[in-house]
Amino acid sequence: MTKAPSTRRLRIPVRFVHSVWECSLGGPVPVEEATEAELVVDPNSISDRAFLELMQREAFHKVLDEGTSLLVSLTVKHESPPKERLIPLLKRYDHFRGQIDSEFLKSWSSDTLHFIEVNLAGPDNKQARLFGTNRGGLWLRTLGVEAVGLASTTIRLPTEISVDPVRSLNHAYTKLSEEFEGSRISHTGNIYTRVLYQERNGRWYPLDLLRNKALDKQELEIAKGLWESFTAKMTMTSKTSDRK
């Protein structure tokens, strides 16, 4: 049986000598033409100050608008059920059959998996200053060309849980976990895998796909459009910087 080629990326130590990258062990870097890679360098070694500023610039790129629905996934166990008045808020996985990409739910049990719908609400004063707008939504936060996270304005929960919006997705997840995941010791979770957004094809995907630049799913129009727009902006900014 032929062993499948490894998908693990190689780290090759190199040095820049006479305008050419060479292996630190000696000789040229033995890679194919048009190979793409990433350089990890000390900022102090960058000779172009404008380029350095571009690579260290923080920015926010809006992904979803105020009012957009999100699904928070919760593991509700039979031995620790939520309060009876809250049970109607839960939607079982079967309710969304064919609408949630099961590729990302392989490690979850459909028997205990439930969802609660929440909505992106307006910004508080601090968020309005940060995003420079009075409209709510979800933003991709970047540092240079790297995605470093997602940031939202306040989140509206079902009124049975909170009349007032909570301040963030993390806060929303904690509130919901406290109400519906009574068996857990800790009520924190990874919002990138536990919160889903709806693509234009009607299917739901984890928020993690919105900060993933290396997308291979053609139907992810929102995610791909976000990165295409971001890349175009970075290219224009870089060209403007070069002309100065």
Question: What structural keywords apply?
Answer:
244 residues, alpha+beta, six-stranded antiparallel beta sheet, three-stranded antiparallel beta sheet, 22% helix, elongated
Provide a descriptive summary of the structure in words:
The chain is an alpha+beta fold. The chain has a domain of about 170 residues. Strand 1 and strand 2 form a beta hairpin. The longest helix is centred in the last third of the chain and has 23 residues. The mean pLDDT is about 85.
Helix tally? 5
Give the low-pLDDT segments.
none
Structural shape: elongated
Distance between the termini: 58 Å
Helix content: 10-25%
**Strand residues, percent:** 15-25%
Radius of gyration: 22 Å
Secondary-structure element pattern, one letter each:
EEHEEEEHEEEHHEEH
Question: What is the tally of beta strands?
Answer: 11
Structural class comes to alpha+beta
Topology overview:
Elements: E1 14-17, E2 20-23, H1 49-55, E3 58-65, E4 69-75, E5 91-92, E6 113-120, H2 125-131, E7 137-143, E8 146-152, E9 155-156, H3 169-180, H4 191-194, E10 195-198, E11 204-206, H5 221-243
Antiparallel strand pairs: 1-2, 3-7, 4-6, 4-10, 5-6, 6-9, 7-8, 10-11
What would a concise description of this structure say?
The protein is 22% helix and 23% strand. With 244 residues, it is of the alpha+beta class. It has a domain at 60-225.
